[in-house]
Write a structure and sequence with these properties.
The protein is mostly helical. Helices cover 51% and strands 6% of the residues.
């Protein structure tokens, strides 16, 4: 299935706009990470997803990362070694390389199975969503807001997180009740399950670890990724 790259392209522009002129020495919204770490991660992620695009195009298996430790070490190395301007250029260049690699996929190659960093086998078309959520959410980490995101993308992000909860069997997985639109994601109303209300943007910020719970009755939740 040929995916729509529109959200990914718009998110790339959004992320790059947050990087330009930013003080990358400041802490980001991710605990323990400065802006330098965020930009280094987004650049490394583009390279990693490019390896999946190569896998899909050629059939030659290329994992995203050699290991979780190798991923973390690459981010720390780039963040420590490169100055802000070089990191900004690297993020832009690797995004362009990924976009070109995805543009080389066609037809059945989009359906070729590749493995994510979490170990899931997915069609190559899902690489577009994996990159989409990276650039938009990390743009928020550099001073953006979930209110900046297209409404349908916020809904897709909420559905993505709640699907992950279900896959993990995470309990208690709350029922999410957006106050500014019809319910998205979460579960149908079930007796005994916690219910959390807030705007869709507030809920997305909370469940991705980028903001407080919008409802004082919200339960503790685990990590997103």
């Amino acid at each position: 299935m040929l995916p729509d790259l529109g959200w990914m392209d718009a998110g790339t522009a959004y992320f790059e706009a947050r990087v330009r002129g930013a003080d990358l020495e400041r802490p980001s919204r991710l605990p323990g990470w400065t802006g330098r770490h965020v930009v280094a991660h987004v650049a490394a992620n583009a390279r990693a997803l490019g390896r999946l695009a190569h896998w899909a195009r050629t059939g030659e298996e290329r994992p995203m990362y050699a290991s979780a430790e190798a991923r973390d070490a690459e981010i720390e190395d780039l963040a420590a070694r490169l100055d802000g301007a070089t990191l900004e250029s690297l993020a832009r260049e690797t995004s362009e390389e990924l976009r070109k690699a995805l543009g080389e996929l066609s037809g059945a190659r989009w359906d070729a199975l590749v493995r994510t960093a979490q170990g899931r086998l997915v069609p190559a078309s899902e690489v577009v969503w994996l990159r989409t959520r990276e650039v938009w959410v990390h743009g928020v980490d550099l001073g953006g807001r979930f209110e900046d995101l297209p409404g349908e993308l916020v809904d897709a992000l909420i559905a993505d997180v709640t699907t992950l909860w279900a896959r993990r069997g995470q309990e208690p997985a709350p029922v999410l009740r957006p106050t500014d639109r019809s319910p998205v994601g979460g579960r149908p109303e079930v007796d005994g399950l916690p219910e959390v209300r807030g705007t869709a943007a507030e809920l997305a910020a909370w469940i991705t670890g980028r903001g407080p719970a919008p409802d004082p009755a919200a339960p503790a939740i685990g990590r997103w990724l």
